[in-house]
Amino acid sequence: MEYVYAALTLNEADAEITEDNITAVLEAAGVDVEESRVKALVAALEDVDIEEAVETAAAAPTAGGASAGGASADAGGADDAGDDADDEEADADDGDDADVPDDAGDEDEEADGEGLGNLFG
């Protein structure tokens, strides 16, 4: 993530996003710089309008949050009672599936997140 932050810092300072500039920012922050990651970042950002990308990213959580919030507000209290009943049914079914571990879906969720950490450091 530090590499992306370095690029954003350079962009905000109206400095050119080059390998040397990214490396200088990272070294100033005390990051152990990997040259291959710097090259990959500069190449990936070559044709990107960072200002537009930041605006788009800033708008995305607001739109997603409004949709989710609106859906739960429209649902009302009646659906909440139904959710509790569904949870109780799910708890009652836990013993029926002896061949499927309770955490079977957790591995997929963990594996999904591992790749992102490796990508950005």
Automatic annotation (TrEMBL):
Highest taxon, organism lineage: Archaea
Coiled-coil boundaries: none
GO molecular function, one term: structural constituent of ribosome
InterPro entries: P1/P2_N_sf, Ribosomal_P1/P2, Ribosomal_P1_arc
UniProt KW Ligase keyword: no
Pfam families found in the cross-reference section: Ribosomal_60s
GO cellular component, one term: ribonucleoprotein complex
Any Gene Ontology biological process: translational elongation
The entry's keywords: Ribonucleoprotein, Ribosomal protein
Region (Disordered): 59-121
Residue spans of biased composition, Acidic residues class: 80-113
Low complexity composition-biased segments: 59-78
Function in brief: Forms part of the ribosomal stalk, playing a central role in the interaction of the ribosome with GTP-bound translation factors.
Family: Belongs to the eukaryotic ribosomal protein P1/P2 family.
Subunit text: Part of the 50S ribosomal subunit. Homodimer, it forms part of the ribosomal stalk which helps the ribosome interact with GTP-bound translation factors. Forms a heptameric L10(L12)2(L12)2(L12)2 complex, where L10 forms an elongated spine to which the L12 dimers bind in a sequential fashion.
Name of the protein: Large ribosomal subunit protein P1
Taxonomy of the source species: Archaea, Methanobacteriati, Methanobacteriota, Stenosarchaea group, Halobacteria
Gene: rpl12p
